[in-house]
Amino acid sequence: MAGHRLNRTAEDIRREIAAVLRELKDPRIQGQLLTVVRVEVSRDASFAKVYVSAMEGLEMAKLAVTALKSASGLIRREVGGRLGLRKAPELKFVADNSTEYASGIAKTLNTLEEQRHEYEQND
User: Which tens digit of pLDDT belongs to each residue from 21-70?
Assistant: First the structure.
């Protein structure tokens, strides 16, 4: 497959997995704010590595990944059906802490902004 087609397929898979996650009834997943960060599809589109992040942190993301691994067959069937793929890729879920990391950066920037305002008011 051409590179742009793989990128488009990866983005479509990411979008559909995010939609399926909202519909899953697993208690290990339901209360969490999960984000599908990115999807990497192999060149022959038979495998897809799905990076999942949780707002609560890396430990919650790892717990969600164990739940997603047990539901990978259902998720694979749903994604394949929704996208009309002849052969849906095998999904491998990986915990990622990018959402937690981004949240930390945002907090740091907000703190710096508040300190800047205090400094400007004192001058």
Answer: 888 888 878 777 888 999 999 999 899 999 998 888 888 888 889 999 99
Q: Could you tell me if residue 32 is inside a domain? A: yes
**108: in domain:** no
Cα(22)–Cα(75) distance, rounded to whole angstroms? 11
- Rounded Cα distance between 57 and 16, Å, is 23
Closest CA to 10 of 70, 67, 1, 68: 1
Domain CATH for 70: 3.30.300.20
Q: Measured on CA atoms in the order 41, 90, 50, 13, is the torsion positive or negative? A: positive
- Report how many domains make up the chain: 1
